[in-house]
Amino acid sequence: MTALIPALHTTPDKTALRFGGRELTYAELADAAGALAGKIGAVSDGRVGRVAVWATATMETSVAVVAALLAGVPVVPINPKVGERELAHIVSDSAPSLVLAEPGTELPDALAALPRTDVTLDGEAGALPGEPDGEAPAVIVYTSGTTGPPKGVVLPRRAISTTLDALEDAWQWTEDDVLVHALPLFHVHGLILGILGPLRRGGTVHHLGRFSTEAVARELAGDGTMMFGVPTMYHRIATEVAGDAELANALRGARLLVSGSAALPVHDHERITAATGQQVVERYGMSETLMNTSVRADGERKPGSVGVPLRGVEVRLVDEAGDPISGGDRETVGEIQVRGENLFAEYLNRPDATREAFADGWFKTGDMATRDADGYIRIVGRKATDIIKSGGYKIGAGEIENALLEHPGVAEVAVTGEPDDDLGERIVAWVVPGETTPTEQQLADHVARLLTPHKRPRVVRFLKSLPRNDMGKVMKRALDA
Predict the structure, then answer these.
(1) Please, which domain of life does this record's source organism belong to (predicted)?
(2) Best CATH choice for the domain 7-170 from the list 3.30.70.1230, 3.40.50.300, 3.90.550.10, 3.40.50.12780
(3) Cα dihedral value 467, 472, 477, 481, nearest 10
């Protein structure tokens, strides 16, 4: 197996990681991670099965993950905001032999009971250990657990290298790129794409610690060339950029702006483009599949689309009977199914769930989408929460949300369905008002004019804010509850 991070062996003097005012070159990262890898291997006479990492957004977390990968030991990143019950389940399910954390960090009881090694940024590694083959487990990411306890998604080294190399192709990602981001480091977006991605390319990552438009402007006006963010971050940018020349100029000079983890509203796309000339690239992936599709750096940008399948990834849409949908029809909605080397190996300790997740070798994502004549995928929502069957029509919540966001009285919105004796389901809009509060009829008429009358909301509920998770995704089950 070739190294996951070849630059640890080849570019010693180049900056690999920067968090605030702290930097590590590739040589320093190799020493710190290599020395820690030796400690991991020494625990329990080398019989460490898995290591947990208390995944704060810090240099130490990055070093800990690289060390585990060098040691060939699967790493379980732990969200520092995790609740007691969920943490107890993750620790019981993954059974880590060791926990890695920053010195002085007080860990919750479920982790404090484990053997612990503090992560330091010094030490000499000597010769780096040989790495295992591509099917060896590398990272175990726990899903959100919306339909039961979180499941451990076992990601082999093969899936990580495949995804990152496909993104190299799609985004023309090189060792000269400097990635700017402020994402958490306990999931695919922030950790695998945002930390391991630049390291695999031999480039540099500048982590902001905490997102702010001021920090984004500073870093992109410096040597930053790319930015990764989630829609809540880009919404902040869209809100401020027209009146902030420094921010607009910094974004204008970036090579690539990428949004992921949830759909970026078309209205925010348009505001950013109007102020900067930049068109944000969207991509689509999941914990189980890593990255599936993306708008290419050299391809046409279609706001609201997540692009075309990445190199080596097969994507199909299927109807309710499981039959593939042929052709490109923006009105025909189907479930996305995926296969390729980017897929996970299994759900940890859940062979039943692993079997149920596949149909004839295709992973069933549960995401619903359309595909246009050019092969661009447009996601309309989750099968379980975002597809509304109303009056005989199958309606995607995302299309209605984008339409409502074009109304000046709507600052944020989520659309769901609820039972209706006549329609089967009626469309409900949960609205955070803008400067003025529109009437329910005004919003219904607005959607009917932009889309079609059967897609108008039948109920509008006004809120001060929408419930969101750590990645900024709206938690629609919380709204329904």
Answers:
(1) Bacteria
(2) 3.40.50.12780
(3) -10
Name the CATH code of domain 387-480 (choices 3.40.50.150, 3.40.30.10, 1.10.3720.10, 3.30.300.30). Answer: 3.30.300.30
Residue 326 backbone zone (phi > 0: left; psi -120 to 50: alpha; other: beta):
beta
Alpha-carbon span 276 to 307, nearest angstrom: 21
Count of beta carbons in the 10 Å neighbourhood of residue 288: 25
Which residue bears the tokens 């329990």? 44
Distance CA 417, CA 401 (A): 13
pLDDT higher than threshold 70 for residue 335: yes
Q: Mean per-residue pLDDT for 282-293? A: 96
pTM score of the predicted model: 0.85
As given in the structure block, the two tokens for residue 147 are 């339909």
C-alpha–C-alpha distance, residues 402 and 10, integer Å: 47
| pLDDT 10s digits, 191-214 | 999 999 999 999 999 999 999 999
- Name the residue with higher pLDDT: 478 or 183: 183
Average pLDDT over residues 118-137: 86
- Long-range (24+ apart) CB contacts under 8 A made by 83-91 are 84/108, 84/110, 86/145, 86/149, 86/150, 87/111, 89/149, 89/150, 90/142, 90/150, 90/152, 91/52
Query: Residue 444 CB: number of other CB atoms within 10 A?
Result: 20
The pLDDT of residue 44: 44
Percent of the chain with pLDDT over 70: 95
CA 305 – CA 375 distance, rounded (Å):
10
